[in-house]
What does this fold into?
Amino acid sequence: MTPRSIAQVLAPTAVAIAAWFAIGWVPSQSAAAQDAEADAQAEFALLAAELADARALDAELDALEADIQAAERAVPAGREVGAFVRFAHAAASDSGVVLDQVAPLAVSSDTDPDSETPLPSGTSSILISIGATGGYLDLMSFIDALVDADRHVLVDGVEMRADESDSTMVILDVEVRIFTTESLVGVPDLGFDDEFLDEPIDEPIDEEA
It folds into this structure.
């Protein structure tokens, strides 16, 4: 066949291929590109959401850690009675009252069948009697300071009476409970000796006085 006749035979085929390319292949490639772009955008949105969740989780973990530390201060692992006694002395001084006595009365735990008040699992309580003297409002401020302490303090009973020798003074007897995760059932000695306290609370004696 002559070149011209070959061209005449191939011309329709070339036109059909060009038409398929224009109508079929090119749009399909464009659609694939759009699909790929949509997939990429969806993946980016997912990653952004996961990043936001991770950042929020960090904030939640910080808040959770703060809650854990607050709980450990409220109910410490050790009895820390000495620390509480020193805190009570400081609270009395700040409130303008005189602390007359701080005496432990009893201990109880979650496994103690004789306990009047059930305790949460894994905890023990120490019942402490506190005596103080001062003005009524000052004594109320002192009680508020005990209750507002970082350590959880539960007031079991409050008794106030007038001081017979000074009508402006009120005598306070209050029983409170502090808590620990240390098992204290059967502790034989609840005295405030130096070993029981974290450190002695007695004020240093002025030898020159």
